[in-house]
Amino acid sequence: MIIKEGLAKIEIPDYNNISKEMPVFYNPLSSIGRDIAVEVASKLGIKNVLDPMSASGIRGIRYYLESNIREVHFNDINPIAIEYIKKNLELNNIKEGKIIISNLDARAIEQKYEYIDIDPFGSATPYLYLINNTSKYLAITYTDTAVWTGEKHRKAYIRYNFNVIKTPIKHEIGVRGLVAHLINKGAEIERALIPIYAHSAYHYYRVYMLKRKGSNRIEKLKSQIGYLYYCPKCYYISESESVCPYCKRKMFRIGPLYLGKLWAIKLDKRDYFNKQSNKIIERINEESEIDKPYYYELPSIAKALKTNIPPMDKIMEKLKELGYKVERTHFSENGIRTNAPYYIIKTIFSSQ
Ligand SMILES: C[S@@+](CC[C@H](N)C(=O)[O-])C[C@H]1O[C@@H](n2cnc3c(N)ncnc32)[C@H](O)[C@@H]1O
Ligand SMILES: [Zn+2]
């Protein structure tokens, strides 16, 4: 069957449902991650990319068609995928530039590129050896989000040494836990992996990092790894207090988490992108202006206070009137990121 996505069209074998068992993997929900990926690559001015787990080739093909990248190395361990990558390059009339196709275990690829996009099933940690294949930028997908959010908290500890329980802001916690993990993995090989963009969408997280040398850079990154304390009764979150000031009970310590800036660049929407991708781009452009490593999930506050949720725009207006910064977040439809303290939000809820 032929699929259209972005400026590409690709052929994949017919399938009944999306699973790892597909003869050649393709997931339409990942098109959001791919939209954002081509926009990141364009903004960073990248010229060449390694796509070590290409499947149909859609990702590398979109990089070629939609950014300034003219050199793509496609690779997949699955020989049927290789046949389809070749077909799809023809289908999209990709002839110029430098195209390499290989059928290897990704970890056996020797060439180095300016940018590498690691996109496996599940956890990408077994493939982090590939950090050596990039001279500059790393894009990475993790689809084991239920582990990072704390829904599978025992696995989070076993797999990643990550202490987490499910919270109302589970995806931001997940992404920040993942970024801390990647920074620590980079540090193991004495490289600074500096976050430049990150988002969650459906079943996956995507993180973009700049790889640099230098102990000072690594130390600076590590100094931004810490913990958040969370009260499971009233949902209060704190960067420093370990006892909830409202419930007087011990809070759960979540981490290690990267507490620094997740976003160093702003992206542009494109009219042919999926609506959802443009929404994420817009929300991140806004929320990245607010320097706070967590947001407030409004329904959980209403639940803790046993009250209704005031309309979101009213809450935002009130916070602005009081001189605080406030924006929506891409992590949740019901969340706001603000530099206002929790008690101010509670007052707004109580005075409705
Ligand atoms: C999630 S899919 C990649 C999807 C693709 N990047 C896209 O955007 O549509 C993961 C791919 O990794 C391939 N794969 C699994 N283990 C691999 C390995 N060790 N080395 C290279 N490829 C591998 C699978 O055959 C599969 O095509
Ligand atoms: Zn509490």
What is the structure about, briefly put?
The protein is an alpha/beta fold and 352 residues long. It has eleven helices and 15 strands.
Describe this structure in words.
This protein has two domains: 2-287, Vaccinia Virus protein VP39 (Rossmann fold, 3-Layer(aba) Sandwich), CATH 3.40.50.150; 296-350, Phenylalanyl-tRNA Synthetase, Chain B, domain 1. It has 352 residues and is an alpha/beta fold. The chain starts with a strand and ends with a helix. The strands form four sheets. Strands 5-4-3-6-7-9-8 form a seven-stranded mixed sheet, sandwiched between helices. The chain has a three-stranded antiparallel sheet with strand order 11-10-12. A three-stranded antiparallel sheet has the order 13-15-14. The mean pLDDT is 97. The chain has eleven helices and 15 strands. Helices cover 33% and strands 23% of the residues. A hairpin with a 6-residue loop joins β10 (225-230) and β11 (237-238). Residues 25-26, 30, 34, 52-56, 58-59, 76-78, 81, 105-106, 119-121 line the site of S-adenosylmethionine. Residues 231, 233-234, 236, 244, 246-247 line the site of zinc ion. Its EC number is 2.1.1.216. GO terms for molecular function: tRNA (guanine(26)-N2)-dimethyltransferase activity; tRNA binding. Belongs to the class I-like SAM-binding methyltransferase superfamily. Trm1 family. Pfam families: TRM.
